[in-house]
Structures are given as structure tokens and as C-alpha cells.
Amino acid sequence: MNKTKVLIVDDSSVIRGLLTEVISSDPELEVVGEAKDPYVAREQIKKLNPDVITLDVEMPKMDGITFLSNLMRLRPMPVIMLSTLTTKGADITLEALELGAVDFIAKPSFEKLLANRYAFKDLLLEKIKSAVKVDQKSFQLSSAISSVKSDKHTTLSFAGCKRANHIVAIGSSTGGTDALRQLIHQLPVNCPPVVIAQHIPPKFSERFATRLNGHVAVTVQEARHGQKLKEGNVYVAPGDKHLQVVHKNGALFSVLDDSEPVNRHKPSVDVLFDSLEPIAANVQAVLLTGMGQDGAAAMARLKNHGARTMIQNKATSLIWGMPGAAYALNAHTSEHALQDIAQEVLAYAALTREEMKGALNA
């Protein structure tokens, strides 16, 4: 079996050595080269033709963003960013995802990396193996991003919810920040409240919400404990808390939970979806692109309790892991291309309770 060829681009020789050791420990992967800066990386790509690149976001001579932008324009290939857990690192990483990076992994300090080497190893290997399955040329990632940046997405019209406390819950992971951006761009100011569990670290969730909020019609914010959930608002789970929804005194409220990860994730989509079971008849649950199975089992439970459940189709998913797992469980009531999901959500929200029952039974 041909091994997946990996090129490591990082200005730290220590980090390059650790990454080489971790990646080379997997029999399916091979480190074919190392580069201390983008200029060396450019020559290595021509010479070694790697399948995947790990790229440090902050490097001398040419920053990672400039290099990535040139790479995606001239020779698109799967790139995993190594990012510091800082506000600056979060902004750079989110920009990298907008430019076409497949995924990112938080780059801990050398001391923390040594202490948590096995957890870091498992996550990195999983991300590399997922990234290599992405054919970015056929996926046309760059054109999708250009569409978002040029504001070609039209905010959809919506007559308003016909049912009180109607809510939309979305789960996503790999490729999710871009998918969410495209979906949320279409939502109008009177849309039902939207709650999101995106697999993302602390600081990144807040920066993602802030960056998106300035470019859409709705209000996007990081969820806070005890908030009343309102129409025209999108609530993103903090990167180190589970987000749940409770119904009390005739209204919906957010609850942040600091319990253990579920499905290795915190926030977990399963936790969010399971919290909605008591009001399932008023729920639209959506699973977008992402690796793994988080959200699939809970989506099946929501469907059994009368919720409308939708998955992103394989053709428009960067990674059809989470929606694919839901598909395998028959947890979905419908399957849609990413560009159609916002319209589907709004059309269903505009139905009366009687019309809604007919739509689910159709």
C-alpha cells in the first residue's frame, strides 16, 4: 500500500522533529521532507509532491497565510494548520480556513506537547488521514470561498415562525467554519434562534463568532450561560463548554456545561441534540461536514421524538463523517446540498403545526 506523503513546514527544528516522530510512527504515513520556511517548502513541494502539508501559521520570511494563499491558487492540496492558542493565532487560523486549509490543530507549548504527546498524536494522525481524502480541485473550495467573500449570498426572505419557541440546532466539525459561514450568510434578521456546536478550541469560538457577526444580517455571538434565545440570533458554543438548551417559563435558554468531553469533544453535538429532546417537535437539527460520528446517535433520538433532522449531502461536504454516520443510522428526515439548507430551514419554520406534521410524514 502506498503511504501518504507528508511535508512538515515549521520554523522550529524541535517541533519539526517531534512532528516527524509522531507522523512516522504510523505505518500508513511517511514524512517525505521538512521545511523551515515557505521558500524551502515551495521547492520541496515541487521535488517531493506531498499528499498533505502541515503548516505553521507564523513563520519568518513569508507568513503562513501568504504562502497558503499562493499555494491554493497555484497548486491546491490538503493543508493542516498548526496554530497557537492565542487571539492572534485564532484570527490567522480562521483566515487560513477561509483560504482553503482543510483543518487545523492547536499547537501546544513544547512542555505541554511532551506531557500530552499521545492525545496530540492521535488527533494529528486522524486529521492527516481525513485531510488526504479531500480532493480540493473537484470540491472547488476556492470558488466557494470567493463567493462568500464577494457577498454573493443573498439574505433570504422569511415571513416569520408560525410556532412559538421553534429552534434550529447545528452540529459541525472539519470544514464546518466555512460551511456555517455560507449558511448563516443567508439567514434573515427574523429567523428562528440558531444554536451551534462546532468542534473548535477556546478563543477560536469567540473569534469565529466575532468575525462572522460583522458580515451577516443576524447577530452572531458566543453563547453565554442563562441567555434567553431570541429570533435573529445565532449562538456558538464556547470551545471548552457543552451547550444545552432548556425550556422554562415559556421560553428557551442556553445552558453551558463544564462536564467531561463526549465523543472526545467539548462542545459535543450529541450533548446539544440530546438537550432538545423534550421540545423535539419544535426542533430542526442539522449535521454539517465533519469527521467522526458526534451528533449522529442523538440525531436519531431526536428524529424518533418528532424533530426534523437534516444532513449535508456528501457532494458538498468537505468530510462526510458526521452526516455520513447519521445517514448510516437513518437518523435524517432529509438530505440537502449546503447551499439549500438555509432555505429548507426557513420554509419549514414558516409552517403551521398541522402543516409541519404533514411535511414530516410526507
UniProtKB/TrEMBL annotation:
SMART domains: REC
Domain (CheB-type methylesterase): residue spans on this chain: 164-352
GO annotations of cellular component type: cytoplasm
Enzyme Commission identifier(s): 3.1.1.61, 3.5.1.44
Domain of life assignment: Bacteria
An annotated Gene Ontology molecular function: protein-glutamine glutaminase activity
Catalyzed chemical reaction(s): L-glutaminyl-[protein] + H2O = L-glutamyl-[protein] + NH4(+); [protein]-L-glutamate 5-O-methyl ester + H2O = L-glutamyl-[protein] + methanol + H(+)
InterPro entries: CheB-like (IPR008248), CheB_C (IPR035909), CheY-like_superfamily (IPR011006), Sig_transdc_resp-reg_Me-estase (IPR000673), Sig_transdc_resp-reg_receiver (IPR001789)
Primary location group: cytoplasm
GO annotation terms (biological process): chemotaxis
Keywords, sorted A to Z: Chemotaxis, Cytoplasm, Hydrolase, Phosphoprotein
Subcellular location: Cytoplasm
CDD domains: CheB_Rec, REC_CheB-like
Keyword Chaperone applies: no
Broadest EC class assigned to this enzyme: hydrolase
Domain Response regulatory: 5-122
Active site: S173, H199, D294
Modified residues (4-aspartylphosphate): D56
PTM statement from Swiss-Prot or TrEMBL: Phosphorylated by CheA. Phosphorylation of the N-terminal regulatory domain activates the methylesterase activity.
Keyword Cytoplasm (UniProt): yes
Family: Belongs to the CheB family.
PANTHER family: PROTEIN-GLUTAMATE METHYLESTERASE/PROTEIN-GLUTAMINE GLUTAMINASE, PROTEIN-GLUTAMATE METHYLESTERASE_PROTEIN-GLUTAMINE GLUTAMINASE
Domain notes: Contains a C-terminal catalytic domain, and an N-terminal region which modulates catalytic activity.
Role description: Involved in chemotaxis. Part of a chemotaxis signal transduction system that modulates chemotaxis in response to various stimuli. Catalyzes the demethylation of specific methylglutamate residues introduced into the chemoreceptors (methyl-accepting chemotaxis proteins or MCP) by CheR. Also mediates the irreversible deamidation of specific glutamine residues to glutamic acid.
Name of the protein: Protein-glutamate methylesterase/protein-glutamine glutaminase
Organism encoding this protein: Thalassotalea euphylliae
Designated gene of the protein: cheB
